[in-house]
Amino acid sequence: MPVNAYCSALYRSLTTLSKFAEDFLLERLPSMKPKANQLLGALEADCMQRLEGELETVDVKLKHVICEAGSDLDHAYFPQGAVLSLLTLMEDGTAIETANIGREGAFGIFAAMYSRVSFNRCLVQLEGPMVRCPIAAIEREFARSANVRNLFVSYSETLLSQVQQTGVTPIPQTVTC
What's the Rg (C-alpha) of the chain? Predict the structure, then answer.
């Protein structure tokens, strides 16, 4: 079989397989809608029912500042297609990107757990849809549900891990024993 014919046949097989896999997964995992926020998707059904009336879809533009460091948060933001960038501000005014948040997580859930003051500047790194929810509603669910507490604490630990990895400097050092 000539190489071009082989490549064409392989491409058709992979395309068919990919379409089959997509149909198979979407049929069996109806809750995993494309571009749905995974953190919201992991909430229990009764929790989501209580929050549904509070959720508001917002479209954000590139470089839009969601929140400045030191500002009070009124909403938590759950990206569905957007990507948010968390920036730590230095004394000299420069900013260091310490984490990114996509549809796997949220910005502002710390406000429901600890303090409504943002530790970071949060800006839009990639335009797209997002859902926001008032902090008061998130606080009620956090107080009411062990599932929500466990989910938010687990996500917070994951985000902290990302920040810690970002903070490691790649400067070679000599260690003497």
Answer: 21
Structure tokens at 177: 């024993």
Coil, strand or helix at 18: helix
Per-residue pLDDT tens for 95-131?
888 888 999 999 988 777 777 778 889 999 999 999 9
Element (H, E) at 50: helix 45-52
Kindly report the CATH number that applies to the domain delimited by 38-167: 2.60.120.10
Choose the weakest-confidence range: 1-15, 47-61, 161-175: 1-15
Distance CA 47, CA 85 (A): 27
Domain boundaries, the chain: 38-167
Burial class (CB in 10 A: 0-12, 13-18, 19+), 92: exposed
Global pTM reads 0.72
> 30, 47, 75: which is closest to 147 by C-alpha?
47
What are the strands of the beta sheet with 128-134, ordered from one edge?
A: 56-60, 128-134, 75-79
